[in-house]
Amino acid sequence: MDSSSRSAVIIIGAGISGISAAKVLADNGIADLLILEASGRIGGRIRKESFGGVSVELGAGWIAGVGGKASNPVWEIASKFGLRTCFSDYSNARYNIYDRSGKIFPSAIAADSYKKAVDSAIQKLRDLESNSVEDVANGAELPLTAKTPIELAIDFILHDFEMAGKFHNSFLSSPVEPISTYVDFGEREFLVADERGYEYLLYKMAEDFLLTSEGKILDNRLKLNKVVSELQHSRNGVTVKTEDGCVYEANYVILSASVGVLQSDLICFRPPLPRWKTDAIEKCDVMVYTKIFLKFPYKFWPCGTDKEFFIYAHERRGYYTFWQHMENAYPGSNILVVTLTNGESKRVEAQSDEETLKEAMGVLRDMFGPDIPTATDILVPRWWNNRFQRGSYSNYPIISNNQVVNDIKAPVGRIFFTGEHTSERFNGYVHGGYLAGIDTSKALLEEIRKDERENESKSFLLEPLIALSGSLTLAQSDAVSGLQKCEVPTQLYLSGKLGIPEAIL
Ligand SMILES: Cc1cc2nc3c(=O)[nH]c(=O)nc-3n(C[C@H](O)[C@H](O)[C@H](O)COP(=O)(O)OP(=O)(O)OC[C@H]3O[C@@H](n4cnc5c(N)ncnc54)[C@H](O)[C@@H]3O)c2cc1C
């Protein structure tokens, strides 16, 4: 058993929010911190993998929200470290909608279907607004008005990409619901296409406060493969237990596990979290977003920036609908990416990659004819079944007040919560996670300072008594020591920070 000494703060999770939280603490003089990460790497939902000779992003792929009045902090960091990115122009996708016989829909039909989908989305939003919050919370479904394959395809993109999915705003330039990211930071999106991966930004951030060498983090304040299974918390501190039997003590904990993980039983809280907290966690939806990568011996799809995104219209909503070729990002890579969400993601995660390849090839042969070559490799990320993620990102119900997110991020005793799901304006995004980490650490620093001030005034009040205790009888001195034991948190005794003479403890 690893019974490490007590840390000032333990941060659980080394995704963007955990790393940004740790950096703020370190920048403010809290060097006595420990980061416990369940997996064998940092990055969390920012994750690259080598595929077909290039680096592909299984998780976050875009820096969304660029070119506006305010600057997206993640874009700033990416620019500072020279991350290679490509502008994504979705505006042409509506002219690249294929039917099942491989014909591209005439633009007039596409425009008409687009208008219908937008009108229906606006109507749905109005219906939601006029329904009671309880009806919505109870899952009252609204009628799906899209009917034809093209309408279904556009409806899918509008909802699963723009509103629920949040990304790819510029595909339809939706007037349906303003998304804070685009309002605040601008409507442009850039795909990360860098061999070092999106995660390179996290290493660069970590370099500032952790010991690193040749791109590796050597600092023993970062512990990988430490799956936190229990958090025992009291007024005095938090005991953190990991699945491998280690026990760590801290004055405070910052927990950055995703909302999907919080909804699962991976971490046991002793005492259990209060009802207001668990209710809020349950109310937040978890989206699943899956990018499936396919490698081909040669290109058979039309290339060019205006053909980067294309759509497959099928009578089943969300069935291999949204496609992207990677020639703009990595010329000559011969890779296609298809995005599935939610129900389709879960279905595909549960089946073998061979079955998924067969389905994807069926769709591609519908669009490009029977003679195209079969993909030589396929990569299917499984975010839903990953017990350290349990989904791709949070999504608050459209009609929900800020109370849910406020409750999700509110601390419980000495446990502080962070992560993209705690960001009021930018949940679901990398910059949401980054800014949430900063906010949480600032709130914790406030708390630590408040604690210090209180303890200083307590020790100031106790000083005359302590001075007196030297001349007291045994019974009197017991009474003084009893008084101190009640009022001063145990960890301050243990760490000796009050400088109370041992004799009276
Ligand atoms: C497929 C996909 C596509 C996306 N696309 C985009 C995009 O294009 N643009 C964008 O801005 N955002 C995108 N996102 C969202 C973005 O990736 C996340 O919002 C962000 O990375 C979340 O960071 P985080 O620190 O909150 O959480 P995480 O990255 O999940 O970090 C939490 C960490 O906690 C660890 N952990 C969990 N449980 C435990 C435990 N019990 N003990 C110890 N450690 C634990 C996890 O292993 C993880 O490393 C996408 C996400 C996915 C999955």
Question: Would you kindly provide a brief summary of this structure?
Answer:
Pathway: Amine and polyamine degradation; spermine degradation. The chain is α/β, with parallel strands linked by helices.
Walkthrough of the structure:
By secondary structure, this protein is α/β, with parallel strands linked by helices. It folds into two domains: 7-52 and 198-285 and 390-451, FAD/NAD(P)-binding domain, CATH 3.50.50; 87-129 and 144-191 and 289-379, Polyamine Oxidase, Chain A, domain 2. Helices cover 37% and strands 19% of the residues. It is built from 15 helices and 23 strands. It has helices at residues 16-27, 73-80, 107-130, 133-137, 149-163, 180-185, 200-207, 259-263, 275-283, 342-350, 353-368, 402-409, 430-469, 474-487, 490-495, and strands at 7-12, 33-36, 48-51, 54-57, 62-66, 85-87, 97-98, 188-192, 212-213, 216-217, 222-223, 228-234, 237-242, 247-255, 268-270, 285-287, 289-295, 309-312, 322-325, 335-341, 377-379, 393-395, 415-417. Helix 1 (16-27) crosses helix 13 (430-469), helix 9 crosses helix 12 (402-409) and helix 13 (430-469) packs antiparallel against helix 14. The structure holds flavin-adenine dinucleotide. Flavin-adenine dinucleotide binds next to helix 1, strand 5, strand 17 and helix 13.
Query: What is the CATH fold-level name of the largest domain?
Result: FAD/NAD(P)-binding domain
Shape: globular
Mean pLDDT: 86
Q: Can you name the CATH architecture of the largest domain?
A: 3-Layer(bba) Sandwich
Counting structural domains, the number is: 2
Instruction: Report the helical percentage.
Output: 25-40%
Which superfamily, in CATH terms, is the homologous superfamily of the largest domain?
FAD/NAD(P)-binding domain
N-C termini distance: 29 Å
Number of H- or I-type helical stretches: 15
List the ions, cofactors and other small molecules found in this model: flavin-adenine dinucleotide
Major sheet, described briefly? Answer: 8 strands, mixed
Structure summary, number of beta strands: 23
| Contiguous uncertain segments of 5+ residues | 139-143, 472-505
Radius of gyration: 26 Å
CATH class of the largest domain: Alpha Beta
Beta-strand percentage range = 15-25%
Helix/strand-derived category reads alpha/beta
